[in-house]
Design goal:
Elements lengths: L2 H12 L5 H8 L3 H8 L6 H16 L2 H16 L2 H21 L14
Helix pairs in contact: 1-4
Length: 115
Protein backbone atom coordinates (compact mmCIF):
# COMPACT_ATOMS: atom_id res chain seq x y z
CA UNK A 1 0.00 0.00 0.00
CA UNK A 2 1.41 3.38 -0.97
CA UNK A 3 1.70 6.41 1.28
CA UNK A 4 -1.11 8.06 -0.69
CA UNK A 5 -3.45 5.11 -0.19
CA UNK A 6 -2.62 4.92 3.51
CA UNK A 7 -3.26 8.63 3.94
CA UNK A 8 -6.61 8.50 2.15
CA UNK A 9 -7.65 5.39 4.08
CA UNK A 10 -6.71 7.04 7.37
CA UNK A 11 -8.58 10.21 6.41
CA UNK A 12 -11.67 8.15 5.54
CA UNK A 13 -11.47 6.38 8.91
CA UNK A 14 -11.44 9.69 10.76
CA UNK A 15 -14.07 11.33 8.53
CA UNK A 16 -16.16 8.39 7.25
CA UNK A 17 -19.17 10.10 5.68
CA UNK A 18 -17.81 13.48 4.73
CA UNK A 19 -18.94 14.69 1.29
CA UNK A 20 -16.41 15.88 -1.28
CA UNK A 21 -17.44 19.50 -0.73
CA UNK A 22 -16.46 19.37 2.95
CA UNK A 23 -13.25 17.45 2.24
CA UNK A 24 -12.39 20.19 -0.23
CA UNK A 25 -13.12 22.87 2.35
CA UNK A 26 -11.02 21.15 5.05
CA UNK A 27 -8.02 20.50 2.82
CA UNK A 28 -8.15 23.50 0.50
CA UNK A 29 -8.06 21.20 -2.54
CA UNK A 30 -10.60 21.68 -5.34
CA UNK A 31 -13.57 19.30 -5.36
CA UNK A 32 -12.76 17.79 -8.74
CA UNK A 33 -9.19 17.19 -7.67
CA UNK A 34 -10.35 15.47 -4.45
CA UNK A 35 -12.59 13.23 -6.57
CA UNK A 36 -9.65 12.33 -8.80
CA UNK A 37 -7.39 11.64 -5.80
CA UNK A 38 -9.97 9.31 -4.25
CA UNK A 39 -10.14 7.49 -7.57
CA UNK A 40 -6.40 6.82 -7.78
CA UNK A 41 -4.81 9.92 -9.30
CA UNK A 42 -1.32 10.55 -7.93
CA UNK A 43 -1.09 13.20 -5.18
CA UNK A 44 1.22 16.15 -5.19
CA UNK A 45 3.28 16.81 -2.06
CA UNK A 46 1.15 19.82 -1.10
CA UNK A 47 -2.03 17.75 -1.33
CA UNK A 48 -0.52 15.02 0.83
CA UNK A 49 0.47 17.65 3.38
CA UNK A 50 -3.07 19.08 3.34
CA UNK A 51 -4.57 15.67 4.09
CA UNK A 52 -1.98 15.02 6.81
CA UNK A 53 -2.75 18.42 8.36
CA UNK A 54 -6.47 17.57 8.47
CA UNK A 55 -5.71 14.15 9.97
CA UNK A 56 -3.44 15.67 12.62
CA UNK A 57 -6.06 18.30 13.47
CA UNK A 58 -8.64 15.58 14.07
CA UNK A 59 -6.22 13.52 16.16
CA UNK A 60 -5.22 16.57 18.22
CA UNK A 61 -8.83 16.84 19.41
CA UNK A 62 -8.20 13.72 21.51
CA UNK A 63 -5.86 14.51 24.44
CA UNK A 64 -5.23 10.82 25.12
CA UNK A 65 -3.52 10.42 21.76
CA UNK A 66 -0.75 12.87 22.64
CA UNK A 67 -0.21 11.07 25.94
CA UNK A 68 -0.05 7.71 24.13
CA UNK A 69 2.52 8.92 21.61
CA UNK A 70 4.76 10.39 24.32
CA UNK A 71 4.58 7.17 26.36
CA UNK A 72 5.38 5.09 23.26
CA UNK A 73 8.40 7.29 22.52
CA UNK A 74 9.65 6.86 26.09
CA UNK A 75 8.99 3.12 26.01
CA UNK A 76 10.91 2.69 22.76
CA UNK A 77 14.03 4.10 24.40
CA UNK A 78 13.71 2.49 27.84
CA UNK A 79 12.13 -0.96 27.41
CA UNK A 80 13.84 -4.05 26.03
CA UNK A 81 12.83 -5.62 22.73
CA UNK A 82 10.94 -8.39 24.54
CA UNK A 83 8.98 -5.89 26.62
CA UNK A 84 8.19 -3.81 23.54
CA UNK A 85 6.96 -6.94 21.77
CA UNK A 86 4.60 -7.67 24.68
CA UNK A 87 3.24 -4.12 24.63
CA UNK A 88 2.78 -4.23 20.85
CA UNK A 89 1.00 -7.59 21.11
CA UNK A 90 -1.32 -6.24 23.81
CA UNK A 91 -2.23 -3.19 21.71
CA UNK A 92 -2.75 -5.38 18.63
CA UNK A 93 -5.13 -7.63 20.59
CA UNK A 94 -7.11 -4.63 21.88
CA UNK A 95 -7.42 -3.22 18.36
CA UNK A 96 -8.42 -6.60 16.97
CA UNK A 97 -11.02 -7.12 19.68
CA UNK A 98 -12.49 -3.67 19.07
CA UNK A 99 -12.44 -4.08 15.29
CA UNK A 100 -14.07 -7.49 15.21
CA UNK A 101 -16.24 -6.79 18.26
CA UNK A 102 -18.25 -4.20 16.34
CA UNK A 103 -19.68 -6.88 14.12
CA UNK A 104 -20.68 -9.18 16.95
CA UNK A 105 -24.43 -9.21 17.59
CA UNK A 106 -25.41 -10.08 21.13
CA UNK A 107 -28.19 -12.63 21.36
CA UNK A 108 -31.41 -11.30 22.84
CA UNK A 109 -32.35 -13.93 25.43
CA UNK A 110 -35.23 -11.90 26.84
CA UNK A 111 -37.30 -12.28 23.71
CA UNK A 112 -36.51 -15.99 23.58
CA UNK A 113 -38.08 -16.68 26.98
CA UNK A 114 -41.48 -18.21 26.62
CA UNK A 115 -43.76 -17.58 29.58
Amino acid sequence: MTLQQKTIQRYRQLYPNLPLREISARTGIQITRVFRLFNGKIMKVGELEAFEKAINAKIAENPSFEKLTSVVEQASTILTNEELAKVAEYIARKVSARTFGRFYIKPNYESAIIA
